[in-house]
Amino acid sequence: MRTIAVLNQKGGVGKTTTVVNIAAALAAAGSRVVVIDFDPQAHLTIHLGLEPQIVQFGSYKVLTQSAEFEKQILLMRPNLWLLPANINLVGAESELVSVVGRETILREAFQSSRDKFDYCLIDCAPSLGLLTLNALAAADDVLIPLQPHFLALRGFGKLLQTVELVNKRINPNLKVKWILLCMFDGRASLPNEVRADVEQFLDKAHGTNCPWAQAQVLPVYVRRNIKLAEAPSYGKTIFEYEQNCHGAEDYRKVAEFIHAQFQPSTPPDAQPVTISEIQDQPSAPSAPSLLPDSQVPPQPSTQPAGVDENQTQPPIEIKSIPQSDSETQSSELTQTKTDQPDTN
């Protein structure tokens, strides 16, 4: 199982939307996917059509009561499971303040389930507190959704510092793998300037030992699309709500790109198979689903996503990330301040 933490301490940049729709695309292609809601606002839970008020189990019990991971997850769509959240998750940090090893509770909880899923995506809270540290301790890779605006870059350095600290103290395998530009408008100059600035910053890190040395800006950008904002109110993924919109096309391409990263190289005499081709093949007969037809993702189209490749000289400079002090105490990991609540 590949565990991906979708992380940004700034709210409203597309974390929950990214988790839901990448997971839905991977599940529709046949991968077994589990998503974890680690945000007390429970936006991921709501997006998949479950009301947090009726949740009596989930991530809170896994963290505070050592509940068994597999007994707390729900099958929400074919091949797609959810570890839900509710408002009780707000109190988890204070309840665990005296617990030894509180940063690794999630990692230990689903260790026995790693061979039962292909992907695990974690929707992190818009903060750098204990919940986020648990997600980073359990993750293999970090995906950072980034809105291409100047203010969205302000916390980018702090975010990378936190990842570096977790990499050194808790999870040496943790790497920043991708930067996903969301709400991208190629007609404006600012998004292209921000993209160029981020790419330049990442290029300087190549060949170093920092956790983002292999990071890249995903070649597919998620274009601004009102359908992505409407889908959560219906408790649907973008593929169920409007499978032919730009948002569906873009997230399908993102899922294909990520899935290809973890597949073995194709032999020279074999033809590569894309997620879209897999979706077009007739499926084998299977047992009837207990879910209503409205919850089964429809077959999406494969129209290519348009990307504006125009880049201009960026006026914004991302300052170099200072190396964390080797004498930093592990207790500092739980003392980072929270940002504004996530609105996505």
Would you write up a description of this structure?
With 344 residues, the protein is of the alpha/beta class. The protein has a single domain, classed as P-loop containing nucleotide triphosphate hydrolases (Rossmann fold). It contains 14 helices and eight strands. An eight-stranded mixed β-sheet has the order 3-4-2-5-1-6-7-8, sandwiched between helices. Helix 10 links the parallel strand 7 and strand 8. Helix 1 packs across helix 13 (246-261).
Terminal residue distance: 27 Å
Report the strand count: 8
Unreliable runs, pLDDT <50, ≥5 residues?
266-317, 323-344
The CATH class assignment is: Alpha Beta
Describe the strand arrangement of the main beta sheet, using strand numbers.
3-4-2-5-1-6-7-8
Oligomerization state: single chain
Mean pLDDT: 81
Percentage of residues in helical conformation:
25-40%
Class from secondary-structure proportions: alpha/beta
CATH H-level superfamily: P-loop containing nucleotide triphosphate hydrolases
Helix-strand pattern, N to C? EHEHHHEEHHEHEHHEHEHHHH
